[in-house]
Design a protein that fits this description.
Elements: H1 12-38, H2 40-66, H3 72-83, E1 92-96, E2 99-104, H4 115-133, E3 137-143, E4 152-158, E5 172-175, H5 183-208, H6 210-236, H7 242-255, E6 259-265, E7 268-275, H8 283-300, E8 304-310, E9 318-324
Antiparallel strand pairs: 1-2, 1-5, 2-4, 3-4, 6-7, 7-9, 8-9
Helix pairs in contact: 1-2, 1-5, 1-6, 2-4, 2-5, 3-4, 5-6, 6-7, 6-8
C-alpha cells in the first residue's frame, strides 16, 4: 500500500481532493457542534488563540515545503491561493496596489447554522498565516456568503488601514489565474486541515470533557462515514461483499495516508496499521476517526462491526478488525483473538 496511484482507480489528485473534502466536512461538523454546545462567541474565544498560534506554525512549515519566494505581497498571494483550496474549488487571488484580494464562491461550511463562527475562525487562521509572512500586514474578510453576498472576499493589507476602506483595493496589477499548486503543497494543506480538525476536537474536550465530546461528535462521524462509504463504493465500482469492502478500506487508507496490511480471513477482515496521521493524537481523536470507519463498514453491510486495538509493537500501531456482529453503529468491541 505504498503507491497511492497504483490500482485503486483514483489518481493522486483525486485522492487529495477527496481527503480534503472529507476532513473539511469533519472540520465543519466539529465547529458546528462546538458552537452549538458553548455558543458561537465562546467557541471563537476558545479556538481563537490556538488557531492563531497554529496558523503561524503552518505558514512556517508550508513555506518550506512549497519553497515560496518573493516580497511580502507575492508570498501572501501565494499563501492565500493555497489556503483557499481547502473550503472549495480554488478561487481567484489578485495582487492590487494596496493589498492582496482572495475571492471564492464555494465553501463546504455553507448551510451550517453556525457558519459565522466558522468564518471567524477561518479569518483568524488566515490572519495568522499572513502575519507569519509579514507582521506589518493584516487580514480580514470584507464580504462573506453568510452575509448574503454571492462570494467571500478576503483582503490582506498593510496595517493600519481602516476596515471600512479595505474593499477599495485599487487597480489590480496581477491576477494569478494560472498559479499551479503542486501535489506536495496540496498534501500539506490536507495536513493543515487535519490540524484544524484536531484543534476543534480538543477545544470541545476542553469545554465539556473527553467522553462528553465524543458523545457529541460520534453520531455525525458515523453518519458521515456511511455517506462516504456509498460514495467511494460507487467511485470504485465495488460490490457490497467481503472483497468490495476490503478494496474500499484499502482505498480509504490510501486517501487518508494510513499505511497498513490488509488480510481477509474466514469471517473477518483485518488491517494491521503501520503508520497513521492520527497516531500521535489523543485517544478521543482516534476514537472519532474510527467512528467514521464504522460508518464506512455499515454502508457496505449493516451487520458488520468495526473495532480497533492498539498494539504494543515496533512494526504496527494498531489493528482494525471488521467482523459480522451486532452492527457498527452500536460500537460493540469484539474480542481481538486470532
Amino acid at each position: 500500500m505504498t503507491d497511492r496511484t497504483s490500482d485503486r482507480g483514483l489518481s493522486e489528485g483525486e485522492m487529495n481532493r477527496i481527503a480534503a473534502q472529507i476532513i473539511g466536512e469533519w472540520y465543519t461538523m466539529a465547529t458546528e457542534h462546538l458552537a452549538a454546545t458553548t455558543g458561537p462567541e465562546k467557541a471563537v474565544e476558545i479556538m481563537g488563540p490556538c488557531f492563531f498560534t497554529k496558523g503561524l506554525e503552518i505558514w512556517e512549515k508550508g513555506s518550506k515545503i512549497a519553497q515560496l519566494e518573493g516580497d511580502s505581497a507575492w508570498l501572501i498571494a501565494q499563501d492565500l491561493k493555497i489556503a483557499n483550496m481547502v473550503p472549495g474549488p480554488p478561487g481567484v487571488v489578485e495582487i492590487a496596489e494596496r493589498g492582496v484580494i482572495t475571492t471564492y464562491a464555494e465553501c463546504f461550511a455553507l448551510g451550517s447554522k453556525y457558519v459565522p463562527a466558522y468564518c471567524q475562525i477561518h479569518e483568524i487562521a488566515l490572519r495568522a498565516q499572513v502575519k507569519g509572512i509579514d507582521p506589518g500586514w493584516d487580514f480580514h474578510f470584507t464580504r462573506t456568503m453568510p452575509q448574503g453576498f454571492d462570494c467571500c472576499i478576503g483582503v490582506a493589507r498593510k496595517t493600519p488601514v481602516p476596515l471600512d476602506r479595505w474593499e477599495d483595493s485599487g487597480t489590480v496589477v496581477a491576477v494569478m489565474l494560472d498559479f499551479e499548486v503542486v501535489d506536495a503543497v496540496k498534501k500539506f494543506m490536507i495536513w493543515a486541515v487535519r490540524v484544524w480538525w484536531v484543534l476543534i476536537v480538543a477545544s470541545l474536550v476542553y469545554a465539556v470533557g473527553e467522553e462528553k465530546a465524543i458523545e457529541i461528535l460520534r453520531p455525525s462521524m458515523v453518519e458521515n462515514g456511511k455517506v462516504w462509504g456509498l460514495k467511494l463504493a460507487e467511485m470504485l465500482g465495488v460490490e457490497r461483499n467481503e472483497t468490495g469492502l476490503a478494496k474500499l478500506l484499502e482505498t480509504f487508507s490510501d486517501i487518508m495516508e494510513v499505511r497498513g496490511e490488509i488480510t481477509i480471513c474466514p469471517e473477518r477482515i483485518d488491517e494491521f496499521v503501520i503508520s497513521c496521521p492520527f497516531s500521535g493524537s489523543s485517544e478521543g481523536v482516534c476514537r472519532l476517526f474510527h467512528s467514521f470507519i464504522e460508518g464506512l463498514c455499515y454502508s457496505m453491510d449493516p451487520s458488520l462491526t468495526f473495532c480497533n486495538k492498539r498494539l504494543e509493537s515496533s512494526e504496527h500501531i494498531c489493528r482494525w478488525r471488521i467482523k459480522e456482529g451486532v452492527g457498527a453503529v452500536e460500537n460493540v468491541q469484539l474480542p481481538m483473538q486470532d
